[in-house]
Amino acid sequence: MALLQISEPGMSTTAHQHRLAAGIDLGTTNSLVASVRSGQADTFSDAQGQHLLPSVVRYQADVAPIVGQAAQAAITEDPLNTIASAKRLMGRGVEDVKQLGGHLPYHFVTGDSSVPRIQTAGGVVSAVEVSAEILRNLKQRAEDTLGGDLTGVVITVPAYFDDAQRQATRDAATLAGLNVYRLLNEPTAAAVAYGLDQQAEGVIAVYDLGGGTFDISILRLHHGVFEVLATGGDSALGGDDFDHAIAEWLLQQAGLEGSSDQKVLRTALVVARTAKEALTTADSTVVSLGAWQGELTRAYMNELIAPLVKKTLMACRRTLRDANLTKDEIKDVVMVGGSTRVLVVREQVAEFFGKPPLVNIDPDRVVALGAAIQADVLAGNKPDSDMLLLDVIPLSLGLEMMGGLVEKIIPRNTTIPVARAQEFTTFKDGQTAMSIHVLQGERDTVETCRSLARFSLRGIPPMVAGAARIRVTFQVDADGLLNVTAQEQTTGVTSGVEVKPSYGLSDTEIETMLRDSMQYARDDMQARRLREQQVEADRSIEALDAALKVDGDELLTAEERSRILAARDTLAALRQQTNAQAIEDGIKALEKSAEAYVEHRMNASIRAAMAGHRVDEFKG
Amino acid sequence: MITLTESAAARVNKFIANRGKGLGLRLGVKTNGCSGMAYVMEFVDELQAEDTVFESLGVKVIVDPKALVYLDGTEVDYAREGLNEGFKFSNPNEKARCGCGESFTV
Lengths: 620, 106
Description:
Helix content of chain A is 37%, strand content 24%. By secondary structure, chain A is α+β, with helices and mostly antiparallel strands. Chain B has two helices and nine strands, in the order βαββββαββββ. Chain B is globular. The mean pLDDT of chain B is 83. In chain B, a hairpin with a 2-residue loop joins β6 (75-81) and β7 (84-90). Chain B has a six-stranded mixed β-sheet.
């Protein structure tokens, strides 16, 4: 039988409707996949028990690409066809790559495409395709481990990734057949893994020292929403540089300095790395290179790598300055990346920020674990109260109604993702189409809000005004992408549009729109009332005219008819003016004058309906 | 009577400890799935008046009377199949299962 997991109270899913979700840390050097099972986030290993998947893909002629450990092993032997660090190329143009070119051994194809492409034995590939191979591998691992298809994933990206780099990451996921719930900033994921999103407020520093890159991010948590205040770092500084510093000392000690023998250099690096790892627990370790053997103490290693650690702290200082903050305003410091295991790094960071950093979650996995927690929430496996508030809608989203009023469907500050639906109806008899105008803003009238999109729903079956039921659904996904669909409920005809709601709106514009909405609240209320009454007046007049055309002559005496028409004309005149109360009174007057007529019509229609039937047919 | 195997009890205890709260484990049935009923496993934060509580290897197993009719005599195990792992029910009341084993009939 299928293997079961424990759900949160009241959240167990229907059989065959499990929402399996995973978090993916798509890294420059290594990638990971994690998921929440029975309330616990775990990273998944491959069949050999390895959690970290090297982000390396090897392309060969006529065979499927190889991903991970096996590909990494081939880097020196087959450098042109073995692509590592594809993340550095994501979303970059040909021009950007020329600048990076010095570091990359690959054979770039010059074509008409603006995307850099690499010639390999297995064909021409782009960074997106290389990343897709890595994602496909992790997807398979997650599905094997979870025993089912993934409903969706959260993929982490560096906080400094721009739109093009984020889009490239999404494209890679699509190519790998993954549904992306959202992209999450890596530092935010790390903060989520530590549960820092459960606090109300605070500024958090995320210190991420990987193998080859260093990132420092300053986040502000405000009402459960993470805002990236500043990012900094060094894209060419990491634990590998520690290894080089130690290796140089080893070569010196062994009398091999200046050696150009690649084999000796590689051995020195391996010894250096082993020693570095040993010194995270031991005070000293025995090292040997060639015929030389000696001892390396932790204190001496710290001295060797001190200049590098200092460089990271200088970046921290700069980034704090960019964020306009002082060190003591930082509430928590989160450590990410394997190189933060080096004790001197922890000590120096603690000293710099004046508080011990958070280190108890494995720094290699913390980002993937945070992504998994977020994915679990987005998949709907947690009760609403545990929802992470990671993003909100800055301004209300709504629809244009008759009379140029805006009906808000999703109010501002609603957390996303969100879906809200409301039913609307037709305004005129026999109306077969409806024009839908999507707006954003806090004011009540169309002219004072920002127009986002228009579309129309056609094919509504002809019915009397008010009989059709049109369900309009506003759906905002976790990336802020708005989808509006309209569906006529009896026939199911549907139409829709997709928009980016905050697209092109700067913070100042949003602020101005908000301020105006408060300042003009009274004006807006009056405008709304007037428009409503005008619409109501139009509807009454239209209904009356239609009725008179059908049976006015049969049911009304000349006197009754002229009295109704007089009230109608008075209302038509009032409707042109701007006194909402007068229009409302006019509508009431018209209704009163037509009371008898309405009654006649009702009786006539009941007679028509019952003609030819016996009374007992209507019983019971 | 409902029992857990040792490995199942150890897992449940670990999951509850990790979650930071919870009285025990609720077992239930839902009338859906492709072949009649489906099993439900949830953490319990609050007991309901009508709940029956069993104690198995230090784990409180909580069942409502409606579900108990279907589950009495069940043993829950924790199993690993390849990379996948999770809980497994051996229920003497079970007569048939759907192909995938997510739902059953009595």
